[in-house]
């Protein structure tokens, strides 16, 4: 499969460093019979050893040429291929098919050119996911795990941390791929978390957070003008002069819940 020409439109950079592959497999710790789905199997660097450990693997791949090559290499009993765009794929329906009454595990080297919208899409299925191990651009991973008050903390971190416990596991250099990307990469582990403070309206929370981070250099009062009054801030104990990166996930949830339907306006 080395003859496959990487395609820029699919953001293809294929993992080839055996040491990194072994580290990822150790982090995943796949066991026989588990319901695992790989996103973007590519040249099967992870696919083959995962099949050896699991017995059977599902994979979502958009590139028809790669699907054809994987179909020749693995039997349907080993690898169930879904030729689809992961951004549009219904992982909830697949979870219901693979693990009725249970959850699926996700792994993958996610295309860097669509990583943020893909993460938001996958978050919609958090209730059907046991855990996820993803290769991503290091800059994105840092934003995912950033703490309030840091320069990397923003909308992506708030919305994912509301749903997942996340941990950066290891750094991966460009030389681990073919062709080498122009950025450093990292592995992140995501585990759905129990809700400490539950959003009454998740869509309202998402809209509120997006509005709060519309202009990072401005305060909450300025970014949320016309939506949140000083009385609203006082009701939840939030200082309106704070910048959005200094507000915790729980405080965004409490503010959204206080606003109720107004948060979705």
UniProtKB/TrEMBL annotation:
<keyword id="KW-0808">Transferase</keyword>
<dbReference type="InterPro" id="IPR020598">
    <property type="entry name" value="rRNA_Ade_methylase_Trfase_N"/>
</dbReference>
<dbReference type="InterPro" id="IPR001737">
    <property type="entry name" value="KsgA/Erm"/>
</dbReference>
<dbReference type="InterPro" id="IPR011530">
    <property type="entry name" value="rRNA_adenine_dimethylase"/>
</dbReference>
<comment type="similarity">
    <text>Belongs to the class I-like SAM-binding methyltransferase superfamily. rRNA adenine N(6)-methyltransferase family. RsmA subfamily.</text>
</comment>
<dbReference type="GO" id="GO:0052908">
    <property type="term" value="F:16S rRNA (adenine(1518)-N(6)/adenine(1519)-N(6))-dimethyltransferase activity"/>
</dbReference>
<comment type="function">
    <text>Specifically dimethylates two adjacent adenosines (A1518 and A1519) in the loop of a conserved hairpin near the 3'-end of 16S rRNA in the 30S particle. May play a critical role in biogenesis of 30S subunits.</text>
</comment>
<dbReference type="InterPro" id="IPR029063">
    <property type="entry name" value="SAM-dependent_MTases_sf"/>
</dbReference>
<keyword id="KW-0694">RNA-binding</keyword>
<feature type="binding site">
    <location>
        <position position="15"/>
    </location>
    <ligand>
        <name>S-adenosyl-L-methionine</name>
    </ligand>
</feature>
<feature type="binding site">
    <location>
        <position position="13"/>
    </location>
    <ligand>
        <name>S-adenosyl-L-methionine</name>
    </ligand>
</feature>
<keyword id="KW-0963">Cytoplasm</keyword>
<feature type="domain" description="Ribosomal RNA adenine methylase transferase N-terminal">
    <location>
        <begin position="20"/>
        <end position="194"/>
    </location>
</feature>
<dbReference type="Pfam" id="PF00398">
    <property type="entry name" value="RrnaAD"/>
</dbReference>
<protein>
    <recommendedName>
        <fullName>Ribosomal RNA small subunit methyltransferase A</fullName>
        <ecNumber>2.1.1.182</ecNumber>
    </recommendedName>
</protein>
<keyword id="KW-0698">rRNA processing</keyword>
<dbReference type="InterPro" id="IPR023165">
    <property type="entry name" value="rRNA_Ade_diMease-like_C"/>
</dbReference>
<feature type="binding site">
    <location>
        <position position="61"/>
    </location>
    <ligand>
        <name>S-adenosyl-L-methionine</name>
    </ligand>
</feature>
<keyword id="KW-0489">Methyltransferase</keyword>
<dbReference type="InterPro" id="IPR020596">
    <property type="entry name" value="rRNA_Ade_Mease_Trfase_CS"/>
</dbReference>
<keyword id="KW-0949">S-adenosyl-L-methionine</keyword>
<feature type="binding site">
    <location>
        <position position="40"/>
    </location>
    <ligand>
        <name>S-adenosyl-L-methionine</name>
    </ligand>
</feature>
<feature type="binding site">
    <location>
        <position position="85"/>
    </location>
    <ligand>
        <name>S-adenosyl-L-methionine</name>
    </ligand>
</feature>
<feature type="binding site">
    <location>
        <position position="109"/>
    </location>
    <ligand>
        <name>S-adenosyl-L-methionine</name>
    </ligand>
</feature>
């Amino acid at each position: 499969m080395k003859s496959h020409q990487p395609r820029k439109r699919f953001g293809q950079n294929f993992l080839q460093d055996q040491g990194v592959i072994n580290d990822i497999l150790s982090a995943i710790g796949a066991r026989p019979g588990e319901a695992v789905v790989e996103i973007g199997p590519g040249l099967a660097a992870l696919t083959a050893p995962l099949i050896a450990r699991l017995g059977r693997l599902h994979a979502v791949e958009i590139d028809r040429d790669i699907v054809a090559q994987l179909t020749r290499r693995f039997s349907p009993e080993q690898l169930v291929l879904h030729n689809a765009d992961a951004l549009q794929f219904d992982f909830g329906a697949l979870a219901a098919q693979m693990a009725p009454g249970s959850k699926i595990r996700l792994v993958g080297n996610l295309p860097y050119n669509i990583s943020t919208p893909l993460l938001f899409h996958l978050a919609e299925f958090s209730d059907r996911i046991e855990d996820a191990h993803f290769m991503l651009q290091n800059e994105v991973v840092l934003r995912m795990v950033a703490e309030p008050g840091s320069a990397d903390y923003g909308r992506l971190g708030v919305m994912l941390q509301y749903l997942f416990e996340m941990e950066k596991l290891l750094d991966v250099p460009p030389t681990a791929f073919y062709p080498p990307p122009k950025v450093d990469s990292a592995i992140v582990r995501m585990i759905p978390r129990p809700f400490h403070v539950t959003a009454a309206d998740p869509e309202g929370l998402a809209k509120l957070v997006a509005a709060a981070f519309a202009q990072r250099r401005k305060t909450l009062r300025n970014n949320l003008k016309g939506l949140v009054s000083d009385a609203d801030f006082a009701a939840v104990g939030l200082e309106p002069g704070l910048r959005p990166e200094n507000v915790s996930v729980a405080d965004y949830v409490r503010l959204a819940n206080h606003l109720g339907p107004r948060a979705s306006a």
